[in-house]
Design goal:
Elements lengths: L1 H15 L9 H16 L8 H18 L16 H11 L5 H23 L3 H11 L8 H10 L3 H6 L2 H14 L19 H16 L30 H16 L8 H19 L14 H12 L7 H23 L20 H6 L4 H4 L14
């Protein structure tokens, strides 16, 4: 646990030791996110089941590439039949490596590269933005590779929402949608008016969404995902489960910070789009308060909450210092909540990279889902790189 706490407090230290206003040190942002991407990318199948199915699919596709067979005849190639972008990415990477660990590392680097672009472009204070990212999303980058990839790719279309360039927006959106069909929830953003809505309207809409979320109605919204994949069936998003108090508290906390500082948020197109994304983020959490994983749909709007809350916490608009410490505190709380929840199944600790052979003794997920035991004794039993340089 101490290793993960150390990682969390690095950006906290940078934030507290620098000017509390605008801090856009690109070197810090790049180096820290690079470090995180390597920490996540080199980890040995952490985070749960998903990495194993992604690895098994990739290994199979890489075998077809090696034998120059027909991809269309493989059940694994058609595993995500409606998400051809992700399948194509598997095929593309398979021309460079046939090893699942290198595949996961490459995908992780792509995710963090897209994340870097968005955080650099849309946040006021990079250390504070990274702290929020750590609390809200960091651990999910270990395992939900497809959905995280789809979200970070689709954020690249935000500038076209701001500039009102629909066809460019559509192209980027479709790329993200082809990685994970749940990205469809991002499409309506383009059609939301570029204006600040009244606080009374916001409160009314949020209460209405909460009432809807308490019913079983949101179930019907997930019919579109019924055949999206075998791994992430729409049942995982079923809204008939127990009440998710954490979703309500998280949404209300961010809504409180936003509405308390509403008049300080600029009215230019960029800030308004990101503000509305932040509000949608909160609304999705309230709509799916009875869903075990419905909150994952809010990920497509997470850059909005990070950007808006970072703006509020930057003090650029005379926000009190106490608000900043509330942001740091809630980020730490969310970070620890996810860590402790996952660590109950030994998903994260003790940390082990794939640079060493073997496996963790208490890794129950490996015992259930490992499909190639050769990886246990030799992480590079499958070629890491298909091509070598003759120097």
């Amino acid at each position: 646990m101490w290793l993960y706490l150390l990682i969390f407090f690095i950006p906290v230290f940078f934030f507290l030791s620098t000017n509390p206003g605008r801090n856009q040190n690109s070197s810090f942002l790049f180096l820290f996110l690079l470090g995180l991407s390597l920490f996540v990318g080199f980890s040995d199948m952490f985070g749960g089941y998903d990495r194993y199915i992604y690895g098994e699919i990739f290994d199979n596709i890489a075998d077809i590439t090696t034998t120059k067979g027909k991809y269309s005849e493989s059940i694994y190639y058609n595993f995500y039949s409606s998400e051809i972008g992700y399948t194509f990415l598997n095929v593309l990477i398979s021309f460079f490596t046939e090893n699942r660990y290198i595949f996961i590392l490459i995908v992780t680097l792509i995710i963090y590269t897209c994340l870097f672009i968005s955080l650099r472009k849309y946040t006021e204070n990079y250390p504070l933005a990274v702290v929020l990212f750590m609390g809200l999303w960091f651990f999910f980058t270990f395992t939900y590779l497809r959905q995280v990839l789809a979200a970070t790719v689709i954020w690249l279309s935000i500038q076209y929402v701001i500039e009102r360039k629909f066809w460019k927006f559509l192209v980027v959106f479709l790329i993200g949608f082809s990685m994970h069909n749940s990205a469809i929830i991002f499409f309506p953003l383009y059609f939301i008016p570029l204006k600040k809505f009244s606080p009374k309207l916001i409160v009314g809409v949020m209460l209405f969404l909460l009432l809807l979320g308490l019913s079983s109605l949101p179930n019907s919204l997930f019919e579109v995902y019924e055949t999206s994949s075998i791994v992430e069936r729409h049942a995982e998003y079923n809204a008939s489960g127990d009440l998710r108090i954490a979703y309500i508290l998280e949404a209300f906390f961010f809504l409180y910070l936003i509405l308390k500082s509403y008049k300080y948020i600029p009215t230019d197109k960029s800030h308004v789009v990101l503000l509305n994304m932040a509000l949608i983020f909160c609304g999705i959490l309230l709509l799916f308060v009875r869903s075990e994983n419905g909150g994952r749909l809010s990920w497509y709007y997470m850059i909005g909450i990070i950007s808006t809350i970072t703006l509020i916490g930057s003090h650029r608009y005379n926000i009190k210092t106490m608000g900043t410490f509330l942001i740091l505190g809630i980020s730490l709380f969310l970070y620890l909540r996810i860590y402790t929840g996952w660590q109950a199944y030994n998903y994260l600790s003790p940390y082990k990279s794939f640079l060493t052979n073997g496996y963790r003794d208490n890794d129950d997920i490996r015992k259930i889902y490992e499909y190639n035991y050769n990886y246990d004794s030799d992480k590079f039993c499958r070629k890491a790189f298909r091509f070598t340089l003759n120097l």
